[in-house]
Amino acid sequence: MADPFEVRMRFTKQLQQLNASVTATQKAAQYALKYKDMDEDLHSCIVEQLEQNRNMNTRANIMYFIEQFLQLASKDGHTNYVRMMQRDIIRVVDAVAPDDGTGSANVQVVRRVLQGLCNKGFFQEDLVLEIEECLKDRPATFEDVRQIERRIEEDRERHKRLRETMWAVPTGPEDKPEWEKLWEETSDWGSDDDLMAKEEREMRGREWSSYCSHYAS
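The line above is the sequence of CID domain-containing protein; the predicted structure tokens follow.
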């Protein structure tokens, strides 16, 4: 059995080294799926890196990683990763593009990724619209020129790789979008799910109230 501490350390290092390369993203995603029995620990690694790492480019790369990772996790049938990210998405957004202005350059990244996740059925449109409303209030501050230059280079590389992506997308009438696959792989709804959904709504309401003045529960 793998040592949990070592698994966390290796995954954390992979998150810190993410860039515009598809290979780097796939490597980290496959690692998390390989050790999916430690899904809660590895999910916490993602959130912790976003909250603790002050480099805006690293946070942006992790945000892009999340979109691709949820696609792979859904395809692999491991929906726990999807559910945990849905639960913590407000923490993630606040970490990637904080309201103190230090992540103002990442606001567009958040919008792009959330829209992609919404289009793939991982998030509801009303939630994305609520987050968009809050992002309008995020102030802008001057960023380190070196970080901006690196962002430009990574965005250019990411766009270059876009056409070379290896992620599964519907290519014909026989293919199903990710949201439909996720629905088919999900067990029937029960009383436990009702209770969990209620608790998650209450938790999300509390977080929205603290992060966004527009939100009213």
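Note on the example: The chain is about 70% helix and 0% strand. The two ends are 45 Å apart (CA to CA).
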